[in-house]
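To: structure desk
From: M.T.
Subject: fold request, one chain
Message: Could you run this one when you get a chance? Sequence is below, nothing fancy, just the single chain.
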Amino acid sequence: MQVCFTIIRQSRSSSPTVQSYTLEVDEGNTILDCLNRIKWEQDGSLAFRKNCRNTICGSCGMRINGRSALACKENVGNELQRLHRDTSGQIPEITVAPLGNMPVIKDLVVDMRSFWNNLENVDPYVSTNARTVPEREFLQTPEERARLDQMGNCILCGACYSECNAREVNPNFVGPHALAKAQRMVADSRDGAKESRLETYNQGIQGVWGCTRCYMCNTACPMDVAPMDQIGKIKQEILDRQDAQASRQVRHRKVLIDLVKQGGWIDERQFGLQVVGNSFRDIKGLISLGPLGLRMLVRGKFPWGFESSMGASQVRSLIESVQNLSS
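Reply: Done. Structure tokens follow.
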């Protein structure tokens, strides 16, 4: 069958342009197969990265029909099914574009320096300071090694980084790939720098608290690393070690849980006072709440009372059960 491949092309010094190529393909052909044919048969100037062609190296990350994926993993048939369009009487179209959150070098090749620099920022290497006998092997049990399997599956393709909404609005956020690798270090029984790592990952919105929990990294990851889940594990490690006075981010999480336990849902008046105002300890935080409070009063939206939700006792029981399992 014939398929039209619409490719977003660009160089460093130009605006994006759209160029289309029509190929005779089979449904089982991968997108990378098709890009190879376009380059070999129609346009040798088309630029894209590739290597193993077997979902191992992560080189061929790009946006296919609007989602970040590996061109060697996705095939024509599956992509056309995802579109859910009636293509009877017309040539179906597949759109290919460069990864997001990184500047384009040429066509589908992006500059990944920020990706690699942010990975380096989390120090993704095992610290061996805990070795009592440095020249000997640092052995792990099968159970200890198994804890690292999911994070170890990351092939650093950039798909999660491309889809990260937190990274798009906050250039200081290190990204889901880096924090998934960070969790690998936190979980590694051989590492001797766990506490200092957690202090680093707890710093402001460049660390784990910059994650907006949009789930896009989990959706995009071709290796089921689930970066957002790994970020959540680091957060829990931090919360287990910190009290509500440690930072606003820690206080936000702890107060939210406490208020839901009390009322089944959040009393927003208490939430603002306890998190931003730190229960009247943070004067600047309290002052910052003033303009919002006044607008709510003027518009009749300030809640004077609070009623617990139905089933608040069951909600409390569920939270306590989960907390008991985690402890």
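Reply (cont.): The chain has a mean pLDDT of 91. Let me know if you need anything else for the meeting.
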